User: What shape does this take?
Amino acid sequence: MDERQALAAFAALGQEHRLRVVRALVTAGPDGLAAGALATEVGVASTNLSFHLKELSHAGLITSRREGKSVIYSAAYAGLSDLIAFLMRDCCQGRPEVCDTALATLSACNCPTGDTAHV
Assistant: This one.
């Protein structure tokens, strides 16, 4: 991820409803949520949700797929991981203990099969 992509991601996350959407989708896991359920989960009208979803999708933070008549949204774990890596890549100045809290948080992820790669 380069700086331009990181700025787009942070801009997308810098709005209350969009941040809630991403958090809800991360919590939902790879199966994601249908648009209606997602709107209810984050407390935003379905009519306004599509605008927020478009911004998050353009920033590479969410994906969508069609299942029958429903559109299912999921967190783009690779994009989120890239954003975290962008922030942490040059940290520590030779002091890896600075990153211990972040690493402990990722290690405690309750991911299916114990896989933290999608966080």
Summary: The longest helix spans residues 16-28. The radius of gyration is 15 Å. Strands lie at 33-34, 62-67, 70-75.
